[in-house]
Specification:
CATH superfamily of the largest domain: Medium-chain alcohol dehydrogenases, catalytic domain
Order of helices and strands: EEEHEEEEEEHEEEHEHEHEHEHEHEHEHE
CATH topology of the largest domain: Quinone Oxidoreductase, Chain A, domain 1
Helix content: 25-40%
Distance between the termini: 11 Å
Strand content: 25-35%
CATH class of the largest domain: Alpha Beta
Shape: globular
Number of strands: 20
CATH architecture of the largest domain: Alpha-Beta Complex
Largest sheet: 7 strands, mixed
Number of domains: 2
Number of helices: 10
Length: 345
């Protein structure tokens, strides 16, 4: 079978990969149909690492995917050959302290699709996954929409961690697919005012279509001054979705006393900094967002029911043979790309 391998920094080669073999008793064999290009894939592509997770080449990345069940293990119930599914890329151990506490997303022994040293990714024709990672989708849902369920589940989890009361004033700093997903989740949850920023005007246009009440390009606007002119008491919640020191600094300035900061973006550096006096004097609440926790089923349901419409996020589509072109486009923010999709078949 064919797969897209990272073979060096900013280098992708399409080559043969071994078949994954038959599924175990609780597993399913999946035929991968569609894979979304994620920002974390870009870290591996551009630098070969995220923190302590370092790629050993050759390596297959990709974790946002939708697939068709080709074979089921002997103990699997609720899934059948031919069924279309959205895939949770996390494989937890089920017995460590985190799993026993229900924190499967911080499982100490987890494997994750495309994560170096854990499990090869989804940019290949077939994979074996636990049946528990597979979520059937209705006939009305496209495979592209099913692929969006995984990144949207992260946005949904972030919105729950940063939950604010009805009428809250909120900023989303960064309007990539995750930041735009947070916006969609917040607007679905209830009435709130959302201030959204980015460095790319086309992404701010998508934010406005998804319901952002105010947008600004941080490259040409003084975001803090402009928002505080409209909200002099500050904001209740800030979702930092850009993964940059500058947006972290903006967040502390924007928040009201006892406000919440949710750090959603993945930072390329090993250390970030905060003004401790600002945190202490405002008694700010800061939380990191680790992927998602049991939100994929809800994400599938919300997309299928058209409670959220994420179709505008998908701007470009590629074949598996064009994976390098897709990665280069996303890495360099070319051609107004928001979300690129790769059709494996």
């Amino acid at each position: 079978m064919k797969a897209a391998f990272l073979t060096g920094v900013r280098d992708v080669t399409i080559r043969d990969a071994p078949e994954p073999g038959p599924p175990g008793p609780a597993d399913v064999l999946l035929r991968v149909e569609v894979v979304g290009v994620c920002g974390s894939d870009m870290h591996y592509y551009k630098t070969g690492r995220i923190g302590e997770q370092v790629v050993e080449y050759p390596w297959i990345v990709g974790h946002e995917c939708a697939a068709v069940v080709e074979e089921v293990g002997s103990e699997v119930e609720g899934l059948a050959v031919g069924q279309r599914v959205a895939v949770d890329p996390l494989m937890c151990c089920g017995h460590c302290d985190q799993c026993r506490l229900g924190h499967v997303h911080t499982c100490r022994n987890q494997r994750f699709l495309g994560c170096p040293g854990q499990s090869p990714g989804a940019l290949t024709e077939r994979i074996v996954m636990p049946a528990s990672s597979c979520f059937p989708i209705p006939e009305s849902m496209t495979m592209i929409q099913a692929t969006l369920a995984e990144p949207f589940s992260i946005s949904l989890w972030a919105s729950r961690l940063g939950a604010a009361p009805e009428g809250a004033k909120i900023a989303i700093l960064g309007s990539g697919p995750i930041g735009l997903g947070v916006l969609a989740a917040l607007k679905d949850a209830g009435k709130c005012t959302v201030y959204q920023t980015d460095l790319l005007d086309n992404r701010l246009g998508v934010a406005r279509r998804l319901g952002a009440d105010w947008t600004a390009n941080a490259a040409t606007s003084d975001v803090v001054a402009d928002v505080l002119a409209a909200e002099p008491d500050g904001l209740d919640v800030v979702f930092e979705c850009a993964g940059e020191q500058e947006t972290l600094d903006q967040a502390l300035d924007l928040l009201t006393p006892c406000g919440k900061l949710a750090i959603v973006g993945i930072h390329q550096v090993d250390r970030i900094s905060f003004n401790p006096n600002r945190i202490r004097r405002k008694e700010l609440r800061i939380t990191g967002v680790r992927r998602q926790l049991e939100c994929i089923a809800a994400a599938v349901e919300m997309i299928a029911a058209a409670r959220v419409n994420l179709d505008a996020l998908v701007t470009h589509e590629f074949t598996l043979a064009e994976t390098k072109a897709a990665f280069d486009m996303v890495a360099d923010y070319r051609d107004h790309v928001v979300k690129a999709i790769i059709h494996v078949r």
